[in-house]
Amino acid sequence: MNQAVDRCRTLRLVLGDQLNEQHHWFGTVDPQTLYVVCELHQEVTYVRHHLQKIAAFFASMEYFAAKLRSRGHRVVHLDLDETAEHADLAALIRHLARESGARRFEYQRPDEFRLLRQLQAIGRELDIETRCADSDHFLLPFERIAEEFPTDRQLRMETFYRRMRRRFDVLMDEGGKPEGGRWNYDAENRKPLPASADLPEPLLFDNDVADILTRIRRHGIPVIGRLRGSSLPWPVNREQGLRLLDHFILHGLPGFGPYQDAMTRESWALHHSLLSFALNTKMLSPAEVIERAVGAYRAAPEEIPLASVEGFVRQLLGWREFVRGIYWSRMPGYERANHFGHDRDLPAWFWSGETRMACMAHAIGQSLDHAYAHHIQRLMVTGNFCLLAGIDPDQVDAWYLGIYIDALQWVELPNTRGMSQFADGGVVASKPYAASGNYIRRMGDYCSGCHYDVTARSGSLACPFNSLYWHFMERNRGELETNPRIGMLYRSWDRMAEDRRAAIQATAHELLLDLDAL
Ligand code: FAD
Ligand code: SF4
């Protein structure tokens, strides 16, 4: 390590997803405290990450270190060259503690289980006092998770969300009633885009990451995805995060509600906020994002419908906090859940986007180009395909955890393994999110340009989602037929002529023999 480590009394570790300028640590300047911000090999190799994801984390960490220094804090920022000689985080911390003569080691509670376990082990091993601080980010205090997410009961996001609305007094009327009289505006939302939709342009930044790209290449870090040139479009500091938030409120929020489930070849972001990276790195807090969105609605209710602001609040106050609670109350067993016993390999084209299925080619292609796909692409296109085809959830997780700019295990795992693959047997979702090609046709414009025919259920040109859907339903009939939310679908399957059903099953069998050929 080239950089000499100054003496200090307290060594404080700031992880790459803890870039929270408003954290209580930074309220006062203590000349005896040394902050450590470090690029770690272990963090860029535990799965194959998207190039933009690694570049965005490293660039944001560099900015954050510089920001702390400008506020008078003492900071050591170590890049991959400087940390390469240490086997892992534990070896690095041992070295830094020794060199600095620190008498105390402090870290903020990590959001990922593997890091918590590692930091707790480091703490036990060091012969100096170790303390864990809260990350000052989430709305629900960590200590309340066990009580809110008991493992012996069926949990539903909707009931949790209502409690959170009441508890934090968000969009509430007098007397504990939801503003507008309803908790949920799903009936107004979930619309496909009209033919002449005016789609907002995403706000893209121009952050030069040439040095970081060179470093990633020099260290032979395996990556996926692409970045044109060396200009990173993602926000790398709080100022950019706030600009992105303002841009979203002005251009995206009004249409967010109605079109949050829509898909189109014409835009990779639609009305979505693109805020997940800024949020998951903690540059922005969920509380301030909610406050600003609600404030904008109050200032201009004629421009921002309640259905849109409620839909957005539901994602942050509801889903985001809910999946975090599921993660921490169900780990470590959760990462091994495989309810349906799925074990097929992920088709090779997940890494290239080269498939004749237009919806998959588009969702995967844009993920490789932008490290981003919006929720419905993740859930109802790529995720739906993996569920219907019976792909091994470990491989599905590794793909999602690597490819998306916002992918951190605490939020990726319950969404992928839980919501999308139903591998948890119904902890997150009350039914599998399984759908035939008709859903994709209804919600987007992919099917018109596809090699496959969305109206056909059998034969070599039939939309693969159609036969795979009925194959999935049939192979899980024993369990799903009694599910009140989908059981009735078996009635229409049973009414179909026997030879048609046989042809659909035969088509699915044929596809499953060689998914790579789709
Ligand atoms: P918007 O659509 O603008 O939503 C606003 C914010 O709400 C998001 O930034 C996010 O913070 C929050 N949010 C919305 N939906 C969810 C959700 N289901 N769970 C948690 N937070 C939510 N999100 C991640 O942050 N990291 C992941 O690794 C991740 N993996 C996913 C995997 C699958 C299979 C699925 C179905 C969803 C996943 N999500 C993940 C949730 C969601 O798709 C993304 O948060 C969202 O697409 C990010 O884009 P956005 O910022 O434009 O979101
Ligand atoms: Fe996707 Fe099927 Fe439509 Fe093709 S026809 S775009 S595979 S849903």
Report on the architecture of this protein.
Helix 9 crosses helix 12, helix 12 (306-330) packs across helix 16 and helix 18 (464-475) crosses helix 21. The chain is globular and about 80 Å long. The chain has a five-stranded parallel beta sheet, with helices on both faces. Strand 5, helix 5 (113-125) and strand 6 (129-133) form a beta-alpha-beta unit. It is built from 21 helices and nine strands. By secondary structure, the protein is of the alpha/beta class. The N and C termini lie far apart (49 Å). It is 47% helix and 7% strand. The chain has helices spanning 41-45, 51-70, 80-83, 89-100, 113-125, 145-148, 157-167, 210-218, 238-259, 276-280, 286-299, 306-330, 358-370, 375-389, 393-403, 409-420, 437-443, 464-475, 477-480, 489-495, 498-513, and strands at 10-14, 33-38, 49-50, 74-78, 104-108, 129-133, 207-208, 223-224, 231-232. The site of flavin-adenine dinucleotide has 27 residues, from helix 10, helix 12, helix 14 and helix 16.
Which features characterize this protein?
518 residues, alpha/beta, 5-stranded parallel sheet, two-stranded parallel sheet, 47% helix, binds flavin-adenine dinucleotide, binds iron/sulfur cluster
Hetero groups = flavin-adenine dinucleotide, iron/sulfur cluster
Q: Biggest sheet, open or closed, and with what strands and sense?
A: 5 strands, parallel
Binned strand content: 5-15%
Say how many strands there are: 9
> How far apart are the first and last residues' alpha carbons, in Å?
49 Å
Q: Would you tell me the structural class of the helices and strands?
A: alpha/beta
Average pLDDT, to the nearest integer?
Answer: 96
What is the count of helical runs?
A: 21
List unreliable stretches of 5+ residues. none
